[in-house]
Please model this.
Amino acid sequence: MKLIKVNKEKCIKCGICTKVCPTKFLHMEEDGPREVVEKACIGCGQCTAVCPNSAIDNVKAPLEKQVKLEKFPVIDEIVAEKFLRSRRSIRCYKDIPVEKEKLTRLVNIARLAPTASNSQGISYIIIQNKELIKKMTEVVMEWMEEEVNKASGYWSFSAHVKDYKKSGDDVVLRDAPNLILGIAAKDFKNGRQNTISQFTYMELFATSLGLGSCWAGLFEMCAFAEYAPLLNLLSIGKDKMITGAVMVGYPKYKFQRLVNRNPLEVSFVE
Model:
């Protein structure tokens, strides 16, 4: 099946589409761009996005579904820097649920993130059930205690388990009202890598919706260990795996300043 359609009246034969094509699927000839059958199109949409005259269409990345970019850069560097730095790991949440519309917008922006060879391949589970979230914390704590007893747990596991038994403090999911999981096929080699990219987009976008988020590291460790009681709670198919977990909710407190990091270390090779 032909993937590329060229409007010859609009095409000025500039060849830009062939230059940005990452797999060299497009080749420039005298009468315009042509497909190279020996190459593979990964559906990244670069060719349609870059064409100055909207002269090229791609079945895998239809022109009609692309959004016109009126200006670039979209925001200036000062706004961009403050926006990026304003994202914080939120571990204290208001006891109110996040609207489904906002949660849907979060995962919808996540799917647009760049992935290895445009492989994508991540689906999402959004958990809103507070009792289920509480039960998952209990199960992760049970796993941590088992790891401590086997002397295979991280040094912090023992302290976390002890504090949980004493006070009931949820250091696993932080009493967050929502948990978003990344899911991929077990045989998908880019699952974790793509999830990190997509969840990074999601976390940054969350701030624009007034939401806070935080990676659920302890939950992920338990999930990656394929702890059966946890996977059974979520009814994850045997051919699927959890590739990431992020807590989401409305922040209980407002941060007043942008936190600094370690001093920049950089070297140039010229």
